[in-house]
Amino acid sequence: MTVLEVLQATTAYFKKHNVESPRLNAEHLLAHVLGRKRIELYLEFERVLTESDLAPLRDLVKRRSEGEPLQHLLGTVEFCGHVFLCVDVGTGSGVIALSLAAKFLEAEVLAVDISDDALALAHENAARLNLPDRVRFLKSNLLQNVEETFDLIVANLPYISTQARHTLSREVLHDPAVALFASVRGDELVRELIAQVPSRLRPGGMLALEIGLDQSEALLSDLAEKNYRDIYSKTDYSGVTRFLFARYG
């Protein structure tokens, strides 16, 4: 089979198994197996693939059709134009911190996580992006071990209620529970951070949060009750309120 024929067959197979963006998934997996960039496949449509090419692809295609996330199969994920290794525990691969450091060259960035494995992977990502001296890493449960004050605190914490597990896609459920679920309400960790932030923000500093579905109203009230100001929210591309911003002091 040629590259094009394999892509067409894999795309059809993914459609049958309800894989989102089937053609894109097929291209990513084939490019990964062949050691090519995805765009390079378009220059090799007529290339005939050998059995040694197809054998590892079959395994990846089967696993993807069963709901294993694409980034788990590839071992990487793209964000803001950079490629990061994926972490299996928590959300501490350094994606946000390193992207901010790459974008704002004068910023001093501290990244915290409670997981040693996540921090080790974040260090590796920093080295891959030539940013090892731009971001400091610290093991901490939220801001517990943080002593400095900051102009900006950003967080994308686990915000899913344990009671909502049955509503999640099979791809999402492949991630560790600790990276997904907070507790019964879902916003417990976010609320804990909101309570900790005032002592770690410089006057006029900003807190930026990603939150879960239907959490905005309660969290906006919580921010107001704790004397934050300039509080506002933003929606995602689906029009759902998913981001909160507030200043303190």
Overall description:
By secondary structure, the protein is of the alpha/beta class. The chain folds into two domains: 3-73, Orthogonal Bundle (Helicase, Ruva Protein, domain 3); 76-248, Vaccinia Virus protein VP39 (Rossmann fold, 3-Layer(aba) Sandwich). Helices cover 35% and strands 20% of the residues. The protein has helices at 3-16, 22-34, 51-65, 70-74, 95-103, 116-128, 188-196, 216-225; strands spanning 76-79, 82-85, 109-113, 135-139, 150-155, 201-210, 229-235, 241-248. A four-stranded mixed beta sheet has the order 5-6-8-7, with helices on one face. It has a two-stranded antiparallel ribbon with strand order 1-2. A two-stranded parallel ribbon has the order 3-4. The longest helix is centred in the first third of the chain and has 15 residues, at 51-65. The mean pLDDT is 84.
Topology of this structure?
Layout: H1 3-16, H2 22-34, H3 51-65, H4 70-74, E1 76-79, E2 82-85, H5 95-103, E3 109-113, H6 116-128, E4 135-139, E5 150-155, H7 188-196, E6 201-210, H8 216-225, E7 229-235, E8 241-248
Q: What would you call the quaternary organization? A: single chain
**How many independent structural domains?**
2
Per DSSP E runs of 2 or more residues, the count of β-strands stands at 8
CATH superfamily membership of the largest domain, which one?
Answer: Vaccinia Virus protein VP39
- Summed up, the helix count is 8
Q: What is the fold-level CATH name, i.e. the topology of the largest domain?
A: Rossmann fold
Helix fraction by DSSP (H/I, runs of at least 4): 25-40%
Mean pLDDT across every amino acid position = 84
CATH class of the largest domain: Alpha Beta
Instruction: Give the helices and strands as they follow along the chain.
Output: HHHHEEHEHEEHEHEE
Structural class: alpha/beta
Distance between the termini: 65 Å
What is the percentage of strand-forming residues? Answer: 15-25%
Pick out the low-confidence regions: none
Characterize the overall form.
elongated
